[in-house]
Design goal:
EC number: 2.7.13.3
GO molecular function, one term: phosphorelay sensor kinase activity
CATH topology of the domain at 317-506: Heat Shock Protein 90
CATH class of the domain at 317-506: Alpha Beta
Number of strands: 7
Structural class: alpha+beta
Oligomer: single chain
Largest sheet: 5 strands, mixed
Number of helices: 13
Catalytic activity: ATP + protein L-histidine = ADP + protein N-phospho-L-histidine
Organism: Aerosakkonema funiforme FACHB-1375
Radius of gyration: 66 Å
Keywords: Coiled coil, Kinase, Membrane, Phosphoprotein, Transferase, Transmembrane, Transmembrane helix, Two-component regulatory system
Length: about 500
């Protein structure tokens, strides 16, 4: 048997059992001792880990894991002691002992750093004293809590009393707010009413201003009409006398000249005194120029008659109600009155007027008011042409100012009158305000801003429409659309009433 064991454990190193002389009692003692030590070393880490898991409050719990590693390594070395009794693996045993030594040294080093912290952990006496102090503090806190409870009850009582007072005050405040809301509503209603009255008053004031200026204008036109009527009455008689005597005077002069020619024929050599008179008076020139003088007198008389008729036609004093008239006469009479502005001026050439009259039936209208519209539109056209001319002076441009007047009948129901100029034109911003009362782009003293507003109201009163097409720098065109039979409105504004009642004088 000894030979078999030697054969089994043969090698460079002998088994550790040779140290014990392979005595069964001694070998068994070492085996049992090492096994029990190893078992204890393996159980202790498990118990330490169990304690740490159950007591989460244990300080430095990680040190138990380090101790467990150290103890397990020690247990492994005792297992190796049993193993090397038969197997000479001393290199492995030495390597495991080296690991155990490293873990032991590490644990010892860590323990050196933990000693002050472990010593600082309170001992049971200190814990008892701390516990007693904690109990005292708990008792004091209970007293404080009881006092706080009493104060809380008192505070709640005061809060309830204060809440009840606040609720009463809130009810009073709500009542006051309700009264205030009613007062504010009444005040807002009053303000709205006053604002509405102010707006109505402002509107009325604006209409009154329009009416006042229109009354002044109407009065001027009425005075002009009366003056024209008086002048026409005073001029008509002498003009008719002159015009009526031109024909017989021409006949008489013709007879006298024929008689003179007969004398010259039959007495070619008059006496010296007569011959001297003929030479002095230039009888041949008189005979030649006398017909021209009579023709000029006739043209002048006809011109005066036309001017008087145009003035009377424009004023229309005898037409207080709507009646059928030829509007071409109104346009011509307006152009006749504006003739002095159409003529050539130092700063511009003469304005060329182009009339394209259609075959219009008589139009039912207030002739005097319609003539006033023609006057306003044509005057504005002339102003625009003069402004265009002044605009072009600095640019040394030559252009011919023109006013084009065109009339047409649309479907035998409506008359359309087009008054266009190639003046300065208007911007879109200005076009939105041209019918607003008192709005004007002319310098102060050159316009009231009521011309187009009055014209718009007059055309509107005729159930018509006044439209405007304009482009800045290219001219303006106004379009008047009036039905052949107009219906006067039953209800009229203050401004329209003035136009109706005073329109006859315009």
């Amino acid at each position: 048997m000894t030979e078999n064991l030697h054969h089994f454990f043969s090698g460079y190193f002998i088994p550790h059992g040779h140290c014990y002389l392979w005595k069964p009692g001694l070998v068994g003692l070492h085996i049992v001792s090492d096994f029990l030590i190893a078992l204890a070393y393996f159980l202790i880490p498990v118990e330490l880990i169990y304690i740490v898991k159950k007591r989460k409050d244990v300080p430095f719990d990680w040190i138990f894991f380090l101790f467990g590693s150290f103890i397990i390594c020690c247990g492994i070395t005792h297992i190796m002691e049993i193993w090397t009794l038969w197997h000479p693996d001393y290199w492995l045993s030495g390597f495991l002992k080296a690991i155990t030594a490293a873990v032991s040294i590490t644990t010892a080093a860590v323990m050196i750093e933990l000693i002050p912290k472990i010593i600082a952990i309170p001992n049971p006496a200190q814990l008892t004293a701390a516990n007693a102090a904690l109990q005292n503090e708990i008792a004091e806190r209970k007293q404080i809590q009881n006092a706080l409870s009493q104060l809380t009850i008192e505070l709640e009582k005061r809060v309830r009393e204060r809440t009840a007072a606040l609720e009463r005050a809130n009810e009073l405040l709500q009542q006051e707010n309700c009264d205030r809301s009613l007062a504010e509503a009444a005040l807002r209603q009053s303000e709205a009413k006053l604002r509405s009255q102010a707006q109505e008053l402002e509107k009325t004031l604006k209409e009154l201003k329009c009416a006042q200026i229109q009354l002044v204008q109407t009065e001027k036109m009425s005075s002009l009409g009366q003056m024209v009527a008086g002048v026409a009455h005073e001029i008509n008689n002498p003009i008719n006398f002159i015009f009526a005597n031109i024909a017989p005077a021409s006949e008489y002069i013709r007879d006298i000249l024929e008689t003179v020619k007969l004398y010259q024929k039959h007495y070619p050599q008059p006496v010296g005194e007569i011959q001297q008179k003929i030479n002095t008076s230039e009888l041949d020139f008189i005979v030649e120029d006398l017909g021209k003088i009579l023709a000029s007198i006739k043209v002048g008389a006809e011109r005066i008659k036309k001017i008087v008729n145009s003035l009377r036609c424009f004023s229309r004093l005898d037409e207080a109600e709507m009646k059928r008239v030829n509007i071409h006469d109104g346009i011509d009479s307006t152009l006749m009155i504006l003739q002095h502005r159409l003529k050539e001026q130092p700063h511009r050439p003469a304005i060329q007027t182009m009339k394209e009259y259609g075959d219009l039936p008589p139009l039912e209208c207030y002739a005097g008011q319609l003539n006033q519209v023609f006057m306003n539109l044509l005057s504005n056209a002339i102003d625009a042409l003069e402004e265009r001319e002044n605009y072009n002076v600095s640019r040394v441009q030559v252009y011919q100012p023109k006013i084009r007047i065109r009339t047409v009948v649309v479907e035998h129901k409506e008359v359309e009158i087009y008054i266009a100029d190639n003046g300065i034109g208007m911007s879109p911003e200005v076009m939105t305000k041209i019918y607003d009362p008192f709005y004007t782009t002319k310098p102060t003293g050159y316009g009231t801003g009521l011309g187009l507003a009055i014209s718009y109201q007059i055309i509107k009163k005729h159930d018509g429409v006044l439209e405007c097409n304009s482009q800045l720098g290219k001219g303006t065109e106004f379009i008047i659309k009036i039905p052949l039979k107009s219906k006067v409105r039953a209800s009229k504004s203050c401004f329209e009433k003035v136009l109706v009642t005073e329109g006859a004088a315009v």
